[in-house]
């Protein structure tokens, strides 16, 4: 299962953090710092997987943003790697050509989208169409 | 571009972004926090819109990494807002700011429940999402049935149901004891017919969690999973929106294959055929394509298929294809694929016997060990470690050593530990082993733990053939200009002990040895100086004829350190000085160190003990445990070498007792190895050492085991005629004297009643360990029979004498246990009905001319079939009242209770899986506990226990036990009573020890035949 999802830029600013396991605040800050250090200096030619404590981080870089998923050692790495990409496609579709600023100013929307995509650390919906339509419904209620 | 509808929020975010530096940012954030705090204080003046805006600001600040220590209440209170926009913020922010243990969440439970069972779909979704993301135990208790209803009701939209499936998954994962999934097999099977792929994806995750816990209830889901997989793999009837780069939901394919890996086999031939066709298609039909996303997705499916084939393909129809594919993958340039190739090869080693094929790729794997990416290097190291055996150990270890000099720091410790273990496990000869360890210390001294050098010292001490070689090697290293301190320690130790064996070689006169070691002294730390002092004393002793000049030199050093501030150094210096003036006495006292007793390598234990934490148990691990292929011999294939006490690897892995012993042994190594005065003892050295290492256990072992615990051992004393056997736990008859058990058998048994793994029995020849897992009415035990000797144990026999309420099946135990090998024998237990009777293992073997036979109680006791369950006041009292009087509710005044504080008693009950519910009973002197009992006949039965103690007299109490089954009530009551009146003799608080064991012993079986009550009375 996904333990947590982090979206960080190259400077280590967190743009989204979602935890599916209970961690204390101090621990969360530590995790965010460590994961950033772990992924930011890796060569683009390296694998997208890196061990993190007793788990592993599956990460992918889009422009200056790192999307990192921390998953169990036994989980299917490539499936989660593509899960990141699907999420990015959904964001891209929703914000039409997403950029970091969209995510900064609409971080609350990003949380909403994520909740339609992943729940309890597991994939909930893999249809981009279903999620975009759902977001449309929710926007109308605001 | 700011889409955000909240201007204040956007302005704040812009302000923060415009800050030039961290300091400015902090000032801006502090100002905002102050602002929000003031506004919240005066809550009445806040519009819902403002409240919402401020709560979002808090989340933003929190996300930036600042502490937000207020406003949680405001976020939680928004959950109860009547309108969607506020409610939504309340739910989302609460789920981010608070975790499951936060007290405030309790305040929201009612609102959350109302939202879940209410008619507003949007609210339902919000509530399910929050509970799914952070729901804890209390949510599980109050919401699980409602969530289950939502999932299976067809009147809700897929939107709600997929959230319900995952919400339930969370609650179940967190609290499997609270979420009742009895009878869910049919529902899961129906859910798998779902047309909506979103619901199906979520349900499949739920299924994985359920089958990973116990697959046998879910056989009916298996053919449906195969159907789903077929449908996806053939792309039949899959809506376009669920295909990803042309691949029908790769995630659902992966999940489905994951679920299938938890079933031990696919029995139905048709289903099996269909499944293998699909798998074949995936294995053969996955090509490398240019589009990276498509390529990843198809390979995600492919790797999952590989895992499933490895799991299912007992006939090895497709295994060779898998190996060929993996062989291809580990050679590709694409890093992700190569990584996964290495990883899956390592997994493959765990499930099937493919060592020989994988060995062909050794050169390729070694290349990956030098890859610039640490992730790949780690996988390569794991694989090399896993594939190493006698045939390739030399190559692999030398490769690791070579790599060690250039490896980065992050890997050196792991590398050196693994190299040390492999060298120990598979050494073709011992001198090579010594070479390897010394090289390790030389190249990566900082990363070589003390365990490693203690181990090499043990080997050298125990092998006379090796001693001159080791001494010569140590001497060579001492010539190097700058050596690591660990090298100074190990070589000084070895030279001290065995330097005299080099006497005639050039550069090895006592004086020269002394000089070369003494040169190192100025550079070492205080922990090394004592070792050097001992070495000097030993060199001095071995100098024949005495050398006046050397003597003066050494004495002056002792003189100097006699006033050292470090106590250890001071004491050694003073004692050696005094001793060395007494001539011949010195020789006796500083004699060579005795051999170390053989024991499991602390290193191997260390490597094995690392556990990973995953949401579901690894299917591969489960598989490895389940391997029913009777006994599995895990051993080194080294030719049995009579002189070498190498290879301790066989012995049992988990017991904490042996780990203590190991600790002792290493401590010994560090502090006392070199023979300070306190260590010197007139007794025969080996016995002394053993006594020291095992402490009170070994000393107590001999006299005590004969009869000590018998009279108090009541669990086996039911009316069952087997009971006589059950209580006989001593080596039988005349054999008693030939082989003495190590440690106290009864204590070991009682320890195992409280925990799931440990040593059941040990004597100088064999160690029997137990590892067990208890699920409801079933138990899965593995007996680890480890031969500690260098010669085989023959005529091994293990017979289980089960009491009538247990069904037990022990897989075949081999007749012979090879030298230093460990044999694992799985044992399955099914509990049919409540009973306190205890199963007995009748175990015998022959060693030399001695036949050894022991009867050992197995820890499959009543409490193992209990599952603690918390009960609230509202639930407890109606139940308690409805079970009125005998035979369902029994009460007894128990006297002769071992006095203990109430807390201790509560702990004791908890450790027997009776969950003490605090504050349920208004009287603080009483304890109320609840649990559920599982057996094949009764399924889950709630049991309630109340214990009323008398603060004035702790030796008596009144106990009331209630359950829906008269036998269960009686048995449970007696069981608890036994635990309260009999405490296993703990080291600090000795229990009731009968004064004359040999006499007391025969009385116990006699008493056993009559009545347990009478027996108890007699005891007290």
Structure description:
The complex is a heterodimer of chains A (142) and B (1020). Chain A has helices spanning 25-40, 77-94, 100-105, 107-117, 128-141; strands at residues 2-9, 14-19, 49-52, 55-62, 65-71, 118-119, 122-123. Chain A is of the alpha+beta class and 142 residues long. Chain A has a single domain, classed as Beta-Lactamase (2-Layer Sandwich). Chain A has a five-stranded antiparallel β-sheet with strand order 2-1-5-4-3, with helices on both faces. In chain A, helix 2 packs across helix 5 and helix 4 (107-117) packs across helix 5 (128-141). The longest helix of chain A has 18 residues, at 77-94. Chain A is globular. The model of chain A has no long low-confidence stretch (mean pLDDT 95). Chain B has 1020 residues and is α+β, with helices and mostly antiparallel strands. Among the domains of chain B are: 463-609 and 654-694, no CATH class; 699-860, Immunoglobulin-like (Sandwich), CATH 2.60.40; 866-989, TATA-Binding Protein (2-Layer Sandwich). In chain B, a hairpin with a 2-residue loop joins strand 16 and strand 17 (953-963). In chain B, helix 28 (529-542) packs antiparallel against helix 29 (548-561) and helix 29 packs antiparallel against helix 30. At the A-B interface, strand 2, helix 1, strand 3, helix 2 and helix 3 of A face helix 1, helix 3, helix 5, helix 7 and helix 9 of B. Chain B: Residues 626-647, 656-677 have a biased composition (Polar residues).
